[in-house]
Structures
1.
Amino acid sequence: MIEGSSKITFYQYLYAICIAVPFINNYELTFFVWFSTVLITISNRYSLNVIKYLACFLVILVISFIASFFNAESTYNFFRDIAYLFKPIIGILVGYQLYKKCQGKFFSTVIYTGIFLSTIHLLIVLITFLRFHTISVNLLREYCGYHSDYEVYVLIILLFYKKFQLCLSTRTVYLFIFLVSASSFLYLSRTNFIQFIVLYIAIKGYFVINKRSITVISSVILFVILGYTAIYHLNPNRSGKGIEAFLYKIKNAPIEAFKTKINKDDWKDFNDNYRSYENILTIKQVSADGTQSILFGKGLGSTVNLGREIWTNDGELIQYIPILHNGFATVFLKSGIFGVLFLIIFMILLGIHKKTNLISVQNINLLLVGTAVFLIVSNWVFMGLYLKLDNKSILLGFMICYREILMKNEIVQSAESKQLL
């Protein structure tokens, strides 16, 4: 039997493994590790709060399950979708249950896991450079990874280390900030840059509506518009190298996600605006099946016909896709408007909190508010918590349990103080 501090350390390592395994890009392995962890750490009691979060994703799954009886799909596609739609549920449970096992070790567990990921990523970047004797946007993304939302959370916590009352020396904090920020930047992920801005604004409290927050957010929006305008007029080349290639991706970002007309026979238009192409086809094909499909989706195992074969990032040639880049569109395909409604309800619940005088709880609440806002973007371009590479759901579960225990301890201490009086 594992006892005492060794037991807590075991669960900290298990947390790190669960966070790291999605980067291997094998969903079967991720599902196995996460599901095994849920079984190992299963609890006999869950709060109403976490049940509400889980219920949103469970309703989406149930609607998809029922809708599938009205649409004939292959058995393989049916069970694959069950595994994919279960992912946020399992992830939140993993984080929630693991924190119950290693209470009091929230920041050390979260931060050192982030440092581990950043170190590994920087080593991969170095190996890639030594292998090709050069580095570029394409090389970084193909061989070193596309993004890491987790590291951005760790960077935010480190930047506000005084606010979170971290027991680390200033030198250590600065070293960690350097490692994590370097790693995060080298993903060259537009979504991660947006995530950083959103979480930074959230921690500063600017999502609480008042005169100051309106001024700050307006200034940020103005700065973004001016910055984008400058990049647009610089007109970076699509085939440019280095920073020019990255600027081209930024220039194309607003168009890529929202374009309504795409010429699939023009390879440049098709590739640059593929996300919008998926969304357009999904709405057309679901709507073509009538009101029932619009309201409740086409169920588990449903796919979108792209009308042509394309190569995926995993090296597969496919025409019928079960999962899209857009989380809202994917949920709409599987469970219709009602499913999308519950996905939105989850984000609203995540951003609504009761007032508290406990500073540590206030800071976690701000992180959760920032996460709720960021999930709007994440679901639009990267599948949100459903993405097979995503591990935010574990961190969410970890934060939710941490906050609940802090609040419970505050209630107990308050009751004890009253008894003494």
2.
Amino acid sequence: MKLYLIKSAVITTIISLSAAIADVYMKLDLPAISYAGVVYLGALFSLVRYFTHHDQNITENQKIRRLMIGSMLRLFLVLIFLVISLFNMKPLEMSFVVIFGLTFIFFLFFDILEMRTNLRPDSEKPNENAID
């Protein structure tokens, strides 16, 4: 869990810095909520990860249920943040929507990669019995 938090913090920092650099050099004039959205997604993915993986003494069925509940909760909370943010913006900022959407996709990709390595740890090791 600690390694996931470190990776999540690094990804959040990289995306925030990338947005700031794009804002300066491309003169995008990003709203401040764009950076808050990146931090929100980083924290949300970390909290959902903690909820789904903190208890190791549960059955496989309970793990699957908890993973599904965590995925649905994450989706609803992301949509709620996006809808509230868009309702509070009087001129609709498409740059915010693009930054928020790309950040969500990056974090989702990162989370899927983490799940894949946990579900199939043998896929990372070379097969010793394979014929070359």
3.
Amino acid sequence: MEKFFELLTQMNPFDLVQVIFWGLAGAISFYFSLGNARVWTSISIGFFLIFLSQAYGINPWAHYQKLTAFHYIIGTVAIMTITHGFLEYYVFCRTFEISGNKLVVYLSTLGVVAISGFFLIINPTPSPNTIRNFKMVENAIWVFLCVMNIEIVRKIYAAIKDSDISKGFIAFGIVFLCIFVWRGSDLYLQIFQWDKDWQDIIAIMTEETSDIEEYIVRVQLSQDVSRYAGLLSGVSVGGAFMYMYRLLK
């Protein structure tokens, strides 16, 4: 517990606020999963997994490399689950039918997470460069699926725009836009090897020089965009779920 509070005091205030709001979203989404229709289950589980992924930085075992890699896998599973959930919701809006049950969704998600964990256990401990690759793959999947989710949310809104909860999906669209900017700017830095992770790897493993100084303005701009968009994504997702909770009451 002492280590936990020490980590809290060391965290960037932006990251701490972001984790708090993702935690709020995770709690409300978990409530949705328990107390609402089957159609919300995948969406709720996905947002709850994002909270677990974001809260990774405030646990006392964050320095373990396999756990770090597992954190990025959880984030990837989360956005895939959310996308599946919004696709289900759109199909429900068009057909008023939903297949499967909550238990199947819970067990399927748990199975994917367990298989991913087993994959890491049976393979060698990831190097810093390998962990960076995990993070880069996660960001790429997030960026692609956020674009897809924005379009799905737009279609859901168009299908139910006369209902009381339609404005809640506008809020989700804003959430995905913020996440797209956050993850996209982070991915941009990774692609051009301007991210801090890669700079640390270069310093440890090679004597190569980086061109980061030559493009320092755009690097700093991208870092600031990533930082503020990450904060906005956390605040917006907490606000979106509180708004949706109010609409569904």
